[in-house]
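Subject: mismatched residue count in predicted assembly?

I count 979 residues in my input, but I want to confirm that the predicted structure covers every chain. Input:
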Amino acid sequence: MNTATFSLAMLAPALPEALLLALVSAILIADLFIAERDKHVTFWLAIASLLGCAALAGASAGNATAVTFHGTFIADPMSQVLKVATLLAVAATLVYGRLYLQARELLRGEFLSLSLFAALGMMVMISASHFLTLYLGLELLALSLYAMVALQRDSVRATEAAMKYFVLGALASGMLLYGMSMLYGATGSLDLSRIAFALEHSRANPTLAVFGLVFIVAGIAFKLGAVPFHMWVPDVYHGAATPATLFIGAAPKIAAFAFVMRLLADGLAAMTGDWQQMLAILAVASIGLGNLVAIAQANLKRMLAYSTISHMGFLLLGILAGTANGYSAAMFYVLTYVLMTLGAFGMMLLLSRAGFEAEDLEDFKGLNRRSRWHAFLMLVIVFSLAGIPPAVGFFSKLAVLQAAFESGYVWVVVFAVLMSVVGAFYYLRIVKLMYMDEPAGEITIAPRLDAQVLLSANAIAVLVLGILPAPLMDLCARAITASL
Amino acid sequence: MSQGFPILSLVVWLPIAFGMAVLAIGSDRNPAPARWTALAGSVLGFLVGIPLWTGFSLAAGGAMQFEEMAPWIPLFSVNYHLGVDGISMPLILLNSFMTVLVVIAHWEVVTDKVAQYLAAFLIMSGLINGTFAALDAILFYVFFEAMLIPMFLIIGVWGGPRRVYAAVKFFLYTLLGSLLMLAAFIYLYFQTNGSFEILDYHKLPLNLTAQVLVFLAMFMSFAVKVPMWPVHTWLPDAHVEAPTGGSVILAAITLKIGAYGFLRFNMPIAPDASHALAGFMITLSLVAVVYIGLVALVQADMKKLIAYSSISHMGFVTLGFFLFNADGVLGGLIQMVSHGFISAAMFLCVGVLYDRMHSRKIADYGGVANTMPVFAAFFVLFAMANSGLPATSGFVGEFFVVMGAVKVNFWYAFLAATTLIFGAAYTLWMVKRVVYGEVANENVAGLADVNARECLFLALLAACVLAMGVYPKPFSDVMNPTITELLRHVATTKL
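Triage response: the counts match. Full output below for your records.
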């Protein structure tokens, strides 16, 4: 650790990150020389960068676990899968959001480079094996997101949302840092593997370690948006421009999953019994409150925010199982959840147009009359979010419930199952509006071919994965077993 | 296990494929291609099911036939496992048959979003067949739940004025029950060391507490579906608001899934709990038979009356099952098939009247026999069958159930049998007020009799009702080996 040596070979496991960083920097400069009306060039450059890095990350999939930068950076099978998913999710977000951003003059170099920096932050988070890298990635992501929300500076709602997001996010980061410092005090290291080793061999002050753990779990709960640390979620989802909401709601969940895995399952594995209890409370509260409060929402973005809270509760169910089964179930859950979120917000963006936000539930009225195909796609996504087969949402719920059941959390499972019925109610409302009501106003669907095709593929994937979930489940299981 | 030609897969997926095709080619301006494709799909769906009957081996005892098995999700050892026995095979054919009738019945009646309407029924038909054929608990659950989506849309899109309320109530009620069943499946999965095979669950020894909990979790799911008193309240709403086709499928088929679930899951998986809770089940069934029969008597809406009559008749089915003797179970099963024909016929008859008058109120009718003689003849026949007249299928099942009840307890039989009188009372009283008497008003005076299309489906059902009433032996022959095996299994304690 003391000799700060550096060689190019050390860079190899971090090649996708290095490439992305180089490309973002290049785009940032190139954008200065691109005229305002040619901004689509920047857009396609950004998409190409994301896809290129995804291909690179995908190509390294199957490689053995590699640790570099003196144990601060780890590239294992789990991180490879998650990175590919993250980059693709970011690319999909940009494709869905393009027209919306263009209509509101937000499609500037700033939004794109912030997206890419956020993506970079997520990749670093996913591969971190050290408190410092973890925190570095997290802050790179968070700062990009704060700026992204605030970018719509003439909107009062967006500015307010950005402010709340920033203050509460900073608070969460503070908690996390405080917890990390305590763990450092208890174990004498910032390196997750050393911390794990110290805890396992009882070389740490247990009281101090548990205190540190409490702060870390609180910080994680903030970032995930789990009850009772969820207050920012509805306001930020509602206030931000829809593409920014989609950005916050989709890819960062994958990074957050990796973050939880690195911290709790890897670093603090010896304290599993302690954090299981805390996660169980967070999960129950999130599933309960998220589903109940979502019923009262008339704004689709707010409703999806509360639905996210409950979904994060389900994700925690998988993690709190504390078994390889549970982790791979949670990984499957987060990947499919991101797919569904992309679809739901993608539809919202497709229905929006200049001067009109399709973000109230009422805006979906009579969609079936306007376009049977789009109503069908939304139907699939909504039933998947509700966890009704044959959409994939059912299998992701089944997998986490099964894992939690196996670890003895029977009552948590029964509670979650009963709350799913409450959840079904508000999802059904969307279906009702689309199919059983007559159109109230005019519904126009953006004629953008790329977004249309992507959205169709996205929703069909939700259905196909529901009918054939085995390949993705196996992929998650293999990645987790190889990385633990 | 013989893996011959995958007939069951065809029976499940053919209607779904046709449903997709109907969706794809359907247009709102010219519904004819969608209609003919749907008709072809439903008829083909029925025809491919015929080999299940003709190739059914009576010598196989209670064993599963036409089995198909392929790994589906190896990680959780979930299999795509299909198979039928003497209980499920007739129900699959009944369902495919009803789908044909529903397609014929919609023809001139449904004019809005025709393709989607037909596609919903075809897809649901395939899913229901899958529910009856599934031998893997997760596969069963997927079909069982997925079925809710088309039915939700059918009630909610093409239904009456309170359709949304009825559709949501139907969906949530059923979902609540089935999710508890899912929890039971997960429990059983760990008890069997990782198996979702229903037949493995049948062999699994469980202590009484576990059996009772599993029984109750599954009871929640199937009792809502049957529906048993007191969780029946979704049914009158759903039936009244659903379009005719939806009511037909609900009454004729989906109610049977609940009863089927008791035979496939509750009784074999938790036999000791079934015996321990038999009194509870019989009480609920008798309440349904007696109390709901009385409720039916006072209905002013024809569809509601038939809906309550359905609950009452399904009470006979569950009563028969929990007597644990061959007569009772056979009677219950025959009653299931017979009620499928009769309730479908009754709802179609009301549909015929409703299409002409746009009213379901009994008070708006009177003297229909004068203007619609052919229709009146059919209606009276089905009403007689509904009240259990000998030589109709309605008699056979109820007779066997009452016979089975006498063997167990005279008072069960007494209560069940006296309510046959209620059944006759509410049905025949409705017939009297609707069909007979003076022509009530000029609307009735202007009614046109059934046309050839309506005649066709009513005649088909009349033939089924009479054939099964006169000669039920083909059905009992198919069902008996499975019933014997089931009762032998249920009589063996798992403790």
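Residues 138 and 196 of chain B are 7 Å apart (CA to CA). Marking this ticket as 'not a bug'.
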